[in-house]
Amino acid sequence: MGNRWRAVGVLAGALFAVNVVARVIIKLGFDGNDTAADRVSLGMFVVIGLILAGVVFVQGRTRPAGRWGADVGAAMLAALLLTVLVGPLLVGDNPFGGGAGLFFAQIWLYLLAAGAGVAIGYLVLTALGLDHRSQQLKRYAEVKLAKPRRVVRR
After folding, report:
1. Residue 16 phi, psi (nearest 5)
2. Are the CB atoms for 121 and 57 separated by under 8 Å?
3. 39, 60, 44: which is closest to 118 by C-alpha?
């Protein structure tokens, strides 16, 4: 059980680290340039989506969807809270400084990027037939075909 929470914590930390790096790049390199800051933010959301797609692809091969889904969901929630509440403080901003609209926009954009990453990872995994359920069905079919047909006497 401890390894499971450690993996959730590592994933949440990695997602938060991507956000911190993007905030530092914006603060140091593009302070005042909104267009460049938006591009860095878009890149951050793409990287978050790709990380989650990779995690889902790797975890989905060996674990049932309910199990990795709970882990990924917990990591996403923890990373979201850190990103929205702690991330701005690290670069000297107020989390609520831009108003309620910006605060909730960050939440929705993060959920959209994370959800898209999870969906893409799972759809690719399922399309290739490498997900846990497909592998179980494949093993079941192989076992059933390997046994000779039982003769019924009358």
Report:
1. -70, -35
2. yes
3. 60
